[in-house]
Amino acid sequence: MEISTPVKKNSSIIPLITMTLLFFMWGFITCMNDILIPHLKVLFSLTFLQSMLVQFAFFGAYFIGSLIYFLVSYYKGDPINKVGYKKGIISGVILSAVGCCLFYPAASLSVYGVFLAALFVLGLGFTILQITANAYVTLLGPEESASSRLNLTQAFNSFGTTIAPVLGGHLIYTLFLVDGKVTADSTRIPYLIFAGILIALAIIISRVKLPSFSSEESEERGLGALKFPQLKMGIFGIFCYVGAEVGIGSLLISFMAQEDIMNLPEVLSKNYLALYWGGAMIGRFLGAISLSGLAQGRKLIYMILAAAAVYLLVFSIVDLTFAQTSFFIIFIVLNIVAFVIGKSAPARTLVLFAGVNIVLLLLSVFSKGSMALYPILGIGLFNSIMFSNIYTLAISGLGKYVSQGSSLLVMAILGGALVPLIQGGLADSVGIQNSFFLPAACYAYILIFGLYCMKRIQVSLDKPVRVNH
């Protein structure tokens, strides 16, 4: 990418703040799906399989949207390079707002299919943001600090997913009850509020002076990127990661409602769901420090301080006592230890985190009560760096095929649509607890991908990527 207008440090602060707000809302609304699933399941008397159509519609839009974008780019040229990142981001925000507005007729008609249509449109809007906003943040300043900026915005994206179960659950299950009951109308006002915030963000983005960028790289035709084995394996790695993360989050509230687990009502279980997503936020902050160029001793100190600060932030958000959340400290310590053992190597860290998640899931499957719940909540911490590490390893050494490889990796977010749907079917047939064998299998594949990359690919903080053929 080439900058058409020089970006000064001070001039990039306001655009970066604007993008951070956007990432926050993006994460918040995405995580609202976990609140919607049990809500709609009860309202429309759905099976687990049918309720998972929520994620199928939402994340299926990522695949359809990115496929359309890929085909348009292939035959007509990159649309974002033609219209610019600013217009691309604004169009994504507006389309997302339209999706939120569609919840009004969906709630008024009380038709499940209309809810799914609204989620599909919302997903299409977020697809455009996935393609444009991530790349734009990396361009807002010097190349050497691009990773830091992206980690910052993604951390606020995780902050959105952390408070969504608490605040969003309060909106639906408490504030906007109809005659004291949760009905389809309970979603009408909250999503209109979300639409209003998104429209306000679109207006702010249109008024803020954003630096413009253009690309002079030649476009590659064909599917040359698929000749790289690490990309082919990485595509399925992204598929498995997103599918496992979304599938676990989607079933957590129903899992906690089981009599032999915790028998918690939705108004309380949403707080534990916030811990699951809050773990991803903590892990991303720790990952940003671990993957920095600091000395190992200073890294450890900063990681401990960051973990304590973010844990206190999460604790202040959830409506739980210290005794109810203190178990989470054990997983944070385990997370720090895994980062230290990983020694800033993406493949090694990926293997460690995938292995830990497999163990945690198996503990949840074969245990009862709190011993079944606590391990599965700790998985969020070890999900934190998986997407970025898989992505980095998958596109390593692609050269002129990087853009093409990136678009294929975005399509793999389809895992968030299919894996939860399959897991929902398993929950209907073999029970929720046993359905968690599926995400365990997903993490097993990620572990295999990490082991492959440890032998074939070397990614260093200060050296170019090298692929061992």
TrEMBL record:
It is a multi-pass membrane protein. Keywords: Cell membrane, Membrane, Transmembrane, Transmembrane helix. It is found in: Cell inner membrane. The keyword Transmembrane applies. GO terms for cellular component: plasma membrane. InterPro entries: MFS, MFS_dom, MFS_trans_sf, MFS_TsgA-like. GO terms for molecular function: transmembrane transporter activity. The chain crosses the membrane at residues 12-36, 56-75, 87-106, 112-137, 158-177, 189-210, 231-253, 273-293, 300-318, 324-342, 349-366, 372-394, 406-424, 436-454. This is MFS transporter, FHS family, L-fucose permease. Residues 15-458 form the Major facilitator superfamily (MFS) profile domain. Its main location: membrane. It comes from the Bacteria. Pfam families: MFS_1.
